[in-house]
Design a protein that fits this description.
By secondary structure, the chain is mostly helical. Helices cover about 75% and strands about 0% of the residues. The protein starts with a helix and ends in a 7-residue tail after the last helix.
């Protein structure tokens, strides 16, 4: 298993290197007006250098004054050392802006992800055990509603009902107007209160697919020969479901779980925008639409690394839930 993980790590590094080259080549293909606009803007600042000097400096920093291959190795050499340059839109180092915003997305995504697993998997199993019953139909309706509802529509309805009509929650932001006057415990409660609606929106939208997937796989497992054999041997229904059936149902589910883990850091663009949460998703979107090439390159490379990490985690989870994977 250790050898397999080491091989996958080396393979992931190679894939990440190729993806980084594609990202750099695509950014080099974009109009140079972005660089020229930044150089012109900085040249107009009091006591600043001339436009020509700024343009030459920016082209040198990002390797735009050389060929694609040479420029890429110059950029990737600095990227390996954690030097991604300054953000053109936020006017601070890219990594510093990333550290300021990523934890908002992680807090939002991790809570929503945990609730999604706790709600969707047990309901999917329950629906499979009681196929064609009232419970099964209710779970199916909830799943279809979650799959069909656009997140921007559902989030807007939540804000209309709970923020405007009932006044239970604030419309936007992560803290209230009197946050600084609260105690430490009061501040934690205030932050948690502002995350209720965004988390609820993400959970309802996300649980539908996982519930349906869990139900389908559980039905397939329950109709297997070894399940009928276990029941014929006189095992209790609780042991048949919790030990034999559930363990084998987890095997395909870990693919979804492993693929969802990178989303904890990637950010929820629409949800963060609607609820005014300055997470990495909203921050990256604002950077891209404003032509912030350094931040965009960093964020795309970050997403690629998260995707490869999620795939590796999914493979390791396979070995955990299925001992046959660990056979040499």
């Amino acid at each position: 298993m250790r050898t397999y993980i080491i091989k996958r790590l080396f393979l992931s590094v190679g894939i990440l290197f190729l993806v980084a080259f594609v990202i750099y080549a695509l950014m080099r293909s974009m109009p140079t007006s972005y660089v020229e606009a930044v150089a012109r803007e900085r040249a107009n600042l009091p006591g600043s250098k001339s436009y020509t000097e700024w343009l030459a400096q920016l082209n040198s920093i990002y390797g735009l004054d050389s060929g694609v291959v040479k420029g890429f190795f110059s950029w990737i050499g600095r990227a390996v050392r954690g030097q991604f340059g300054d953000s053109w839109y936020y006017n601070i180092p890219v990594t510093e802006k990333f550290k300021e915003t990523v934890w908002f997305s992680f807090a939002l995504g991790s809570v929503a992800f945990a609730l999604e697993l706790v709600i969707a998997i047990p309901l999917g199993i329950l629906a499979a055990r009681k196929q064609y019953s009232t419970v099964d139909y209710a779970v199916t309706v909830i799943a279809l509603v979650g799959i069909s509802l656009p997140v921007f529509f559902f989030a807007t309805i939540l804000k209309l009902v709970f923020s405007i009509q009932l006044g239970w929650f604030d419309l936007n932001g992560t803290v209230g107007r009197y946050f600084d006057q609260l105690s430490r415990w009061g501040q934690l409660l205030d932050i948690g209160k502002h995350y209720v609606l965004p988390v609820f929106a993400l959970v309802i939208i996300s649980i539908g697919g996982l519930m349906r997937y869990t139900r389908t796989n559980m039905l397939e497992v329950l109709n297997s020969d070894y399940i009928r054999t276990a029941r014929a041997k006189g095992l209790s229904e609780k042991r048949v479901i919790n030990y034999h059936a559930f363990r084998n149902t987890l095997i395909p589910i870990v693919t979804i779980i492993g693929g969802s883990i990178p989303g904890l850091f990637a950010g929820a663009l629409i949800t963060e925008t609607l609820f005014g949460i300055t997470g990495i998703g909203k921050t990256s979107y604002d950077a891209m639409v404003n032509g912030d090439i350094p931040f965009s390159m960093f964020y795309l490379l970050f997403l690629a690394a998260l995707t490869l990490l999620g795939t590796l985690i999914a493979d390791i989870l396979y070995a955990v839930v299925d001992p046959r994977v660990r056979v040499n």
